[in-house]
Amino acid sequence: MGQLADRPDASIVAAVLTGNVDAYGVLVCRYRDAYTRFAARMLGNIEDADDALQLAFVRAFRNLGQCRDPDRFGSWLYQIVVNECRTLGARRTRRELRLVRDDSKLENAAAPDTSADAALRDEIQHALDRLDAGHREAFLLRHVEGMGYEEMSEITGVGVSALKMRVKRATDRLRGFLEGAVT
Amino acid sequence: MNDWKKDPESAAIEHITRPLKEPVRLDDSFEVRVMSAVHSAALANIDAEHTSERKREESRWWNRPITIRFSAITGLAMAASLFGIIFLGATMLSRRAPTVVAAKPADVQNVHFILVNGSAKQVFLVGDFNGWAKKQTPLVRAANKNAWTVSVPLTQGRHEYAFIVADENGDHWVADPLTPVVEDEFGTESSIVRVEPASS
């Protein structure tokens, strides 16, 4: 397994497709941390991010034979992660709409970390959550994950000009939401 | 901070994204859970292939039902002949020794065993299905070094098993912490797995 961990993606994909199921664990280790941050920021909490990542890895395994360019397994997996986040996010929105909001419970909920950094992060995450999912996705890929627009387009299936528009609008709205906290 | 004056938008983005760029880590059991689901998916895929192959086999011409029409007299004659053949065959077969009938594939299912143990050097699976033979069924260490896994085809019904964990202090008998256990007359705990009939 040690040698396998040093091999490129395409080699590991080939090993998995020829029956070495355990080799897939190398890909899980390789990509899980890199994509967890996006999922957590996109969905707003670590529990949903865990679900999204797990579903994405299993879906990728089931469809590994359809990965046309195994050298770019990471990009292909990213598309699946983005899709799982969209699905989970939509499902969560429907679920939240069915719940009766109880503000007193929200106010009394224990905050796990009360440091200034955590408070700022929570405020920014709250502002992110208020964005439309498409705008949030574009903003995170561009400004948090540092992707170029071509790569974003490949992963999201959205055109470059539409993505630029989304990023711009997301940035403007975030600045509006966070006026005072960020400046 | 000079950038802030030159390009307020870039500075604002930097301010917003800095906390968001902090790494986020999933708990250590993530890989084990994913690989468990992956192994299940792989086994389901094998089962699906077997089912598909069985259906293909059933659809071949020699397995398809056929309808043959006879006149009443021909039918009576053939029925008498068939009765004679069956009677003769049964008489001959009754003189043969009993034979062991192999379990049908549908009666056997692959069961995936997992043990998380970061200090083990080797792990073996022992149970009533392998005669409690220590070295017969070794587990394979997963990529994260903490999980050990193996898949074993088991017949339907209840099975008892345990793990033998070999570490620097020797060999240890370990019941599966994730399943119900039973104790033998000496107080040694073994785990229970029940293999249910396939839903298909």
Task: Give the gist of this structure.
The complex is a heterodimer of chains A (183) and B (200). By secondary structure, chain A is mostly helical.
Key words describing this protein structure:
A: 183 residues; mainly alpha; Rna Polymerase Sigma Factor, Chain: A; Arc Repressor Mutant, subunit A; 2 domains; B: alpha+beta; Immunoglobulin-like; five-stranded antiparallel beta sheet; three-stranded antiparallel beta sheet; 26% strand; flat
Main sheet properties of chain B: 5 strands, antiparallel
Please tally the β strands of chain A and state the result: 0
At CATH's second level, what is the architecture of the largest domain in chain A?
Answer: Orthogonal Bundle
Unreliably modeled segments of chain B: 1-5, 91-105
State the order of secondary-structure elements of chain A, H for helix, E for strand: HHHHHHHHHH
Strand content of chain B: 25-35%
Shape of chain B: flat
**In one word, what is the shape of chain A?**
elongated
Number of strands of chain B: 8
Explain how this protein is built.
The complex is a heterodimer of chains A (183) and B (200). In chain A, helix 4 packs across helix 5 (73-98). Chain A is mainly α. Chain A is built from ten helices and no strands. Chain A is elongated. Chain A folds into two domains: 1-101, Rna Polymerase Sigma Factor, Chain: A (Orthogonal Bundle); 112-183, Orthogonal Bundle (Arc Repressor Mutant, subunit A). Mean pLDDT of chain A is 85; it is low at 97-111. Chain A has helices spanning 2-5, 9-17, 24-43, 46-62, 73-98, 103-108, 116-130, 133-144, 149-156, 160-177. Chain B is of the alpha+beta class. In chain B, the strands form two sheets. In chain B, strands 2, 5, 6, 7 and 8 form a five-stranded antiparallel sheet that branches. In chain B, a hairpin with a 5-residue loop joins strand 3 and strand 4 (147-155). The radius of gyration of chain B is 30 Å and the shape is flat. The chains are: A mainly alpha (183), B alpha+beta (200). Chains A and B meet through helix 3, helix 4, helix 7, helix 8 and helix 10 of A and helix 2, helix 3 and strand 3 of B.
